[in-house]
Design goal:
By secondary structure, the chain is α/β, with parallel strands linked by helices. It folds into two domains: 4-201, Formyl transferase, N-terminal domain (Rossmann fold), CATH 3.40.50; 207-295, Formyl transferase, C-terminal domain (Methionyl-tRNA Fmet Formyltransferase, Chain A, domain 2). It has a seven-stranded mixed β-sheet. The protein has helices at residues 15-23, 49-56, 70-77, 95-99, 121-127, 162-186, 218-227, 289-295, and strands spanning 4-9, 27-32, 37-39, 44-46, 61-62, 83-87, 104-109, 117-118, 132-139, 149-156, 201-202, 234-238, 241-251, 266-268, 273-281, 286-288. Strand 3 (37-39) and strand 4 (44-46) form a beta hairpin.
Length: 305
């Protein structure tokens, strides 16, 4: 059945869901997205991925700074929606917005709630060393990711970086959202409250937590590296410059924390060692460790910090 929807989202993670809703024939009355912002090295103002996708498909895009005003709320209500679909939008929805659609507002969230409510659930799950995560569709309410849950999918994290996991969950979530809407229309799904136990919060990632502390175990540093890859990138300093580490592997080895202990760029940690695999010098491209060493030798005994 065709539903009249508003879609509210901003980054790449949200695009597959919007694309799948269109492919299923739903009527997207309007797309809400964060306003265009300066991006890239030139800091030129440009719209976000959802905005670009919607505009390319001839869908009206609205970019309010806030939804708290009566005029914005009236404009939303005038869309006469069956539902609003929210995927990484970036604005809290006031009660008047939540109440406007016939079926309500539904959020696709990138974690197994109530674990990792908040802004950066995928990165935090990887950084914490979680074994699994997933996507959940929940009925939205005024609290931060506190609404009752409708349908979910679980995945094993394994050795994925947050970038790889985000791409995987975005595709899985798009399919989950479409299936959830179909089940809602058939009356074949019921919302269940989130458990009261196990609540954690995924605060926004900041660049100041990206510096590698080599006194930590290889497992902890590995989780940090994968959780912050590709952005903002875990980093260390060597020979007076910053070196981003975008992928590494825990290996056997020992030495002073932060010391290069082999010719293949294996670094001693507080417990175990980490072999660097993908790195990036300041102002340069991402490269394999052996490519880096050709022009930037780091002999055993070199200290990183």
């Amino acid at each position: 059945m065709t539903l009249r929807l508003a879609f509210m989202g901003t980054p790449d993670f949200a695009v597959p869901t919007l694309a799948e809703l269109l492919a299923q024939g739903h009527d997207i009355a309007a797309v809400y997205s964060q306003p265009p912002r300066p991006r890239g090295r030139g800091l030129e103002t440009e719209p976000g991925p959802v905005h670009k996708f919607a505009a390319a498909h001839g869908i009206e895009v609205r970019t309010p700074l806030s939804l708290k005003g009566e005029a914005e709320q009236a404009a939303f209500a005038a869309l006469d929606l069956d539902a609003a679909i929210v995927v990484a939008y970036g604005l809290l929805l006031p009660q008047a917005i939540l109440d406007a659609p016939r079926l309500g507002c539904f959020n696709l969230h990138g974690s197994l709630l109530p674990r990792w409510r908040g802004a950066a659930p995928i990165q935090r799950a990887v950084m914490a060393g979680d074994l699994e995560t997933g996507v959940i569709v929940m009925q939205m309410e005024a609290g931060l990711d506190t609404g009752p849950m409708l349908m979910a999918e679980r995945v094993t994290i394994g050795r994925k970086t947050s970038g790889e996991l985000t791409e995987h969950l975005s595709r899985l979530g798009a399919d989950l959202m479409v299936r959830t809407l179909g089940a809602l229309e058939r009356g074949a799904v019921a919302a269940h409250p989130q458990p009261e136990d196990g609540v954690t919060y995924a605060k926004k990632i900041t660049k100041d937590e990206a510096r590698i502390d080599w006194s930590k175990s290889a497992g902890e540093i590995d989780a940090l590296v994968r959780g912050l890859s590709p952005w903002p990138g875990a980093f260390t300093e060597v020979k007076g410059e910053r070196l981003k580490v975008l992928y590494a592997e825990p290996v056997a080895g020992s030495g002073a924390p932060g010391e290069v202990i082999s010719d293949d760029l294996t670094i001693a940690c507080g417990d175990g060692a980490l072999r660097l695999k993908r790195v990036q010098r300041a102002g340069s491209k991402v490269m394999a460790a052996d490519e880096l060493l050709k022009g930037f030798p780091l002999a055993p005994g070199t200290k990183l910090g």
